[in-house]
Write a structure and sequence with these properties.
The protein is α/β, with parallel strands linked by helices. The chain has 15 helices and 18 strands. The strands form 5 sheets. Strands 12-11-10-13-9-3-15-18 form an 8-stranded mixed sheet, sandwiched between helices. Strands 5-4-6 form a 3-stranded antiparallel sheet.
Length: about 450
């Protein structure tokens, strides 16, 4: 993250329960007038695991690590060779042909949508197999996700039970044959009999973790404290949004002791859908709470207006099949919109996703749609401009920082707003983006 945070003032405050938190304020009055249209991926951005995809926290952390560790295939043997010694969102500077281990496995395993299940299974056991050398990073992330912190009575009691049950399991396993060991299911933990607190997620072993990452709710607190106009869209390519929305509504109703919201925030429990058609048409199916019925919109200008008019929290399922069928090309991924001719925009789209990258057009999940009002058409921005638009309209979510700093999203959005202010003054770049984007290919 850059140091361009001059407009950010920082102070500390306390909640009624005595919990201290950092208060940040964006003093840039131009940015503050814009409505924030905030889009968030789900997995590894707002949460690590969910019940719908049958992914555990442990599997989710393993999966994340495969996406931030780099290497390449040896030309002579075709075997994988590690370059990374620690996780990084950025490609190693000394290895232009490097790819992430996740991308390597994806290329090997996924030929159709149903193969994603096999990919999740493979990446979910990473540090127990080929990724054993990276175990310390796994342990650090797991600790950050624990619901009860070290030193608390609840954590001491939970760890005591988990340790005892692990010893009992090992003794039981010694009494059975090796071939039966793989078929034997773990006995449920007594911890599963304890009610789960709000925003808690209990693993198969019984460990209690955060469900939705706390940084997300800290962001909403901040946006309300600073009287910002905003709307939030959960942008997934799966069916894992409903549990998130139900949990978010509970926390936004001030059921969680660490968060206090100044006002209620509507949560729309009816997910929308974006479809990518073969003739480059984007279709949105969406129903806001005040709408009498589901709307179907194929005009991208109207889609943008619809999304900008929203309030509260919504979910939209993006078109995975279209993205997969084009070998994950960014032009068929998650669309957001920008008009380079509008030097005083009233809104600002920002999409957070751990799969957003500016390395290769077939390894990114954000389609920045450039709007041409005269033609009444939208075009995918050429990928050559993506390095200039990173941390303006799209951010590669960094799970390490999201867990380490509850103000991560606040700081990231402030940086995006400052960067947009600079971009709007760079008329040469805006002109180039418009000219190279808005070309009709026959």
């Amino acid at each position: 993250m850059s140091d361009n945070l001059n407009n950010l003032s920082i102070s500390t405050d306390k909640l009624p329960n005595g919990h201290e938190y950092t208060t940040l304020a964006n003093n840039n009055t131009t940015s503050k007038r814009r409505k924030l249209i905030l889009h968030f991926d789900n997995r590894n951005t707002l949460e690590v695991a969910n019940n719908v995809s049958a992914t555990t926290i442990e599997q989710g952390v393993n999966n994340f690590l495969t996406g931030v560790l780099w290497g390449s295939e040896k030309e002579s043997t075709g075997e994988w060779e590690w370059v990374s010694t620690s996780p990084s969102l950025q490609k190693p500077v000394n290895c232009s042909h490097c790819i992430t281990y996740f991308k390597y496995l994806e290329n090997q395993i996924v030929k159709q949508a149903i193969d994603r299940k096999d990919l999740r299974a493979k990446t979910g056991s990473f540090v127990y197999n080929e990724g054993a050398r990276f175990r310390q990073f796994y342990d650090e992330l797991i600790e950050s996700l624990r619901y009860y912190k070290l030193g608390s009575k609840e954590r001491e009691q939970e760890d005591k039970i988990l340790t005892l049950e692990e010893v009992q399991k090992q003794k039981a396993d010694e009494l059975i044959k090796k071939q039966e060991e793989n078929e034997r299911k773990r006995r449920p933990s007594v911890l599963h009999n304890i009610p789960i607190p709000v925003n808690g997620y209990r693993s198969e072993k019984g460990t209690l973790y955060h469900y939705v990452l706390p940084s997300f709710f800290r962001l909403i607190e901040y946006l309300q404290e600073t009287d910002r106009d905003f709307v939030i869209y959960l942008r997934t390519m799966g069916d894992d949004s409903k549990n998130f929305l139900l949990n978010a509504q509970r926390i936004l109703s001030n059921e969680h002791p660490e968060f206090r919201f100044k006002q209620s925030l509507d949560v729309n429990h009816e997910p929308g859908r974006i479809e990518r058609k073969t003739n480059d048409i984007i279709r949105l199916q969406m129903k806001f709470q005040e709408d009498p019925e589901m709307e179907i919109i194929e005009d991208e200008f109207l889609i943008n207006e619809k999304l900008e008019s929203g309030h509260g929290i919504h979910a939209i399922k993006d078109d995975f099949n279209a993205w997969c069928q084009t070998n994950y090309h960014y032009t068929t991924s998650k669309p957001i919109w920008f008009d380079p001719d509008d030097l005083n925009p009233q809104s600002h789209h920002i999409l957070f996703d751990d799969n957003f990258r500016v390395i290769h057009p077939n390894d990114s999940i954000v389609d920045i749609r450039i709007m041409d009002k005269k033609k009444r058409k939208c075009y995918s921005c050429p990928f050559e401009f993506y390095p200039k638009l990173e941390d303006v309209f799209a951010v590669q979510a960094n799970l390490y920082l999201i867990l380490a700093d509850r103000d991560y999203y606040i700081k990231s959005i402030t940086e995006c707003e400052n960067n947009l202010d600079q971009l709007l003054q760079d008329t040469q770049t805006l002109k180039a983006i418009k000219e190279k984007s808005c070309i009709d290919h026959k």
